[in-house]
Write a structure and sequence with these properties.
It contains twelve helices and nine strands. With 360 residues, the protein is α/β, with parallel strands linked by helices. Strand 4 and strand 5 form a beta hairpin. Helix 9 runs parallel beside helix 12. The longest helix has 22 residues. The protein is elongated.
Length: 360
């Protein structure tokens, strides 16, 4: 397979894997904090199961609040917020109260007090564990259901038709308090007043019935893509185009052929032979060949021709031509005749002496 085709296939596979992972690992729209479906420490799955074990009729509501139609008797809606909100009612919540229903909101924003973070709050059902410093200080004493000298943790606000209870902590009966049944019992007492129908709002956590998903355009992939901004689609298409161009190794110009390097056979042979001799730890051959060549170069410099001379003859002619001592020359000429392994250090010293002789 050619390199360009192989790169194209690799690019296509990479794009396919990216698309698949996008669908599998894409961020979910569900918010599990405070959800009765969640078994995490900040979820309410354990409290929901507790209510069912107590024989309490409790339903999960997965539609907008304005679509919650109750029977003739009033109902209570529990909203566990995933993020702190202001203690102000929304229009649909106010409409819900105007119908004579009750509302319990866990997780409203209030000022941070000087109290300890972990406290035990007294209640008719026993001590309730609270993990927050936030206290609401504007509630009347008669409206406080749970609190201390720093302010209220849970308080109520009575309206003309219904009643709303607020809590500064969204974790009043979270799964983290499974070993503290007083927390579970206390929240149960807040929502079980007057025998109302009881609903837990899961719509605010992203859980929606099938008909709601279809109405809101979340029923299938086509509806999802239809709501995707055009600019985002163009950016994604541009990125895919650049990936394809890169994967096929194309350039915005004429291609240039690679030049095949010319191989020097002599140099390659020398390097290969040197490698073999090095592994065999055989230096006598190298000393002999290099010594012969150095001697010929020295004879040419002295004008003595290109035929190797005898050892003593060369020494005599060296003294006659240069007038210098022949001790160094005698040393370098004797080394090849020893026929023994020479260390790397001695070899370098021997070559340095030849260099000195050539500079006479």
């Amino acid at each position: 397979m050619k390199s360009s085709k192989r790169n194209a296939w690799i690019g296509a596979i990479a794009i396919a894997v990216t698309v698949i992972l996008s669908f599998i690992a894409a961020p979910t729209t569900k918010i599990y904090i405070g959800s009765s479906y969640s078994r995490a420490a900040d979820g309410y799955g354990a409290w929901y199961a507790y209510m069912q074990q107590q024989g309490t009729t409790i339903q999960r509501w997965q539609k907008p609040l304005e679509k919650l139609e109750t029977e003739k008797k009033p109902a209570t809606l529990l909203r566990v917020m995933s993020h702190l909100r202001e203690p102000v009612l929304l229009p649909d919540e106010q409409e819900w109260l105007d119908k004579g229903n009750d509302l319990v909101i866990l997780g409203v924003r209030s000022r941070v007090s000087l109290s300890d973070f972990h406290t035990l709050q007294a209640s008719p059902l026993g001590e309730v564990k609270i993990a927050t410093r936030r206290r609401y200080q504007k509630a009347k004493q008669s409206d406080i259901s749970l609190g201390d000298r720093f302010g209220s943790v849970v308080w109520q606000s009575t309206r003309k038709q219904g009643k709303v209870l607020f809590s500064t902590t969204p974790y009043l009966a979270a799964n983290a308090y499974q070993d503290d049944l007083n927390n579970f019992k206390y929240l149960a007492s807040l929502v079980n007043r007057k025998g109302n129908q009881l609903f837990v709002d899961e719509y605010i956590h992203g859980y929606k019935d099938a008909d709601v998903k279809e109405i809101e355009g979340e029923g299938n992939l086509i509806d999802y893509l239809a709501k995707t901004p055009l600019l985002a689609l163009l950016v994604q298409a541009g990125i895919l185009l650049l990936v394809l161009i890169w994967s096929q190794n194309r350039r915005f110009g004429q291609s240039t052929a690679l030049e095949t390097p010319v191989i020097d056979n002599s140099e390659a042979y020398i390097q290969a032979l040197a490698g073999v001799l090095q592994k065999a730890e055989s230096s006598d051959f190298v000393v002999e060949m290099v010594g012969r060549e150095e001697q010929l170069q020295l004879q040419k410099a002295l004008g003595l021709g290109s035929v190797p001379l005898e050892h003593q003859t060369l020494l005599d002619l060296w003294v006659k031509k240069t007038g210098k001592n022949a001790a160094v020359l005698d040393t370098v000429l004797k080394l090849p005749a020893r026929k023994r392994r020479v260390s790397q250090r001695d070899l370098f010293n021997w070559l340095a002496k030849w260099r000195i002789l050539r500079e006479f």
